[in-house]
Amino acid sequence: MYGISLGRFGEWAESGRIAQNVMAVYLELDSELAKPDFMDILRRISELEGYTDDAEDTPGKDRSA
C-alpha cells in the first residue's frame, strides 16, 4: 500500500491489517482524501497477506486435487 515495506513486521500474523491502519492515518492527516471503499481495504489487506485473485496462488489452498 503506497509502496510501504512491511519489513520485519511482515512476519506478524495478520500483517495485512497494517493497510487499514495506514489508511486511517492518511485519512486523519488529510481531510480531503477520499475514503476508500471497504472492499478496497479488504483487497489491500489480502494482497499484503499474500492472497491474489488467482486461486492457485492462495495460501492454504489444497493443490492435491
Q: How does the SSE layout of this entry go?
A:
Blueprint: H1 18-29, H2 38-48
Helix pairs in contact: 1-2
Structure characterization notes:
This protein is mainly α. It has a domain at 7-51. It contains two helices and no strands. The longest helix has 12 residues, at 18-29. The mean pLDDT is 76.
Report the structural category. mainly alpha
Bin the helical content. Answer: 25-40%
Order of helices and strands: HH
Q: Report the mean per-residue pLDDT as an integer.
A: 76
| Strand content bin | under 5%
Envelope shape: globular
- Give the biggest beta sheet: none
Integer-rounded radius of gyration = 14 Å
- Low-confidence segments: none
Would you count the extended β strands for me? Answer: 0
Q: How many helices? A: 2
Q: Terminal Cα separation, in Å? A: 34 Å
Summarize the structure.
This protein has about 60 residues and is mainly alpha-helical. It has 2 helices and no strands.
Question: What labels describe this entry?
Answer:
mainly alpha; single chain; 65 residues; 2 helices
